[in-house]
Amino acid sequence: MLNYRMTAYILGSIAVITAGLMLVPFLMTFGYGEDLTSTTLGFGVTIAILLAAGVPCIVKKPTNMHITSSCGFITVALAWIMMSLVGALPLCISRVVPNYIDCFFEIVSGFTTTGATIMTNIDGAPQSILFWRSMTHWIGGMGILVFAVALLPKSSPAAVHLMKAEVPGPEFGRLVSKLRFTARILYCIYLALTVLEVILLVASPKMNLFDAVLHAMSTAGTGGFSNRGLSIGYYDSVYIEVVVTVFMMMFAVNFNIFYFILIGHVSTALRNEEFRTMFLIYGVTALLITISLTTARIYENFWVSLRYAAFQTASMMSTTGFTTTDFNSWPTICHALMVAVMFVGGSAGSTAGGMKVSRILIGAKSASINVKKANSPRGVFTVKLDGRPLSDDLRISVGNYFVAIFMLSIFSLIIISLAEGSRFDLTEIFSAVATCINNVGPGLGAFGPMYNFAELGYLSKIVLTLDMLMGRLEIVPILLLFYPKAWIPAK
Prior knowledge:
Layout: H1 4-31, H2 36-58, H3 69-87, H4 89-93, H5 100-111, H6 127-142, H7 144-151, H8 159-166, H9 179-202, H10 209-220, H11 238-251, H12 255-262, H13 266-270, H14 273-295, H15 302-317, H16 332-344, H17 357-375, E1 384-385, E2 388-389, H18 392-420, H19 426-437, H20 458-473, H21 476-480
Antiparallel strand pairs: 1-2
């Protein structure tokens, strides 16, 4: 059942918060002397719309602030759709991206931290628009509703359902007893890591402060938007690549790990099974790609191959999507490995996309248990993660998620194949679907690192936009929008 008044209150709060955040690029239009009838007007009109819609909803608090789990999921889905619909207006009004469907695709790609783009002249775009694109990554990475919970003066009964719906992963856990403090801790860690990356990037003589801020926000959200058409490859700097690689992997780590380290529980953090597995997968994949590149003599020696393999593996596994080279020219085995880590993704509770390492672990252990049960029907076996037994409900939800992702991928593949005809081959379409569902960015072939999604038809862009939203919100919140019983008013 849906508490309409509380949902309107939450959406109004999100609208006002988004308007406040949009003031930054709005003021930048004056600082950079941009056209007042273009970007300044675009951001100004959008801020006015957000305030006009949001303020009336929050003037008076609802008397009943309780919401159900399904209401929380629907509210989160509506919030993300609202943010994307309105967030696309500055691009459309300023005519930087003339078509609204393209604008919507671009901003959904930003908020969901996918990084797939339809913009063909990124280097020539206004600074304020480039900043807003990267800022959507930073907002969407941790989640705008988590930010709203952090700002609450006291814990709301709705907070737990909102955070469960928005924070990615099979389970949601508090760091401290009060949710608003958990949200504040998460955002403080998030902000501190972002600032640290800005400092390290601006230390390079090849990157100015504006570029450093944009790339730090994109790295933090594991999104991958850049203000350079060649992405990180534009700078051709080993130092910058090392810094970005390290931070891409850091933001793909469950933020609870950083909290445990901060309070001195380093050994607990390092024993985390998901943490160790993620870096094992990363290390093995990067090494295999390095060996493949060296054997195929794509680059002059092992160390240069390692440079590109380490960066691109981190970029794909963290689902950031930055690039330093055109990996379309790499051997097929490298493409297969990158697609594999793209589906695996980062850790639950991180800003990374993908299916999450914890789900892969749970799925693998469940499969192993099924084999053991087949061999010993009377045996008692339990799936454990970090030494903790997992409930059957959690195991079932993980299995259901795998099935849902598979079905969504197949459905999207069929629709886009019908819409595009013979313009793209199966590998290219599959990579486009996979990169959007897993919120990565670049795909293969026509959707590779040196290209974009501009040539797709409108139907294909709408399907991929839906894939990005469902991938970021992990399917259920979007599906509930189409479930009539979920819209029954609460008593």
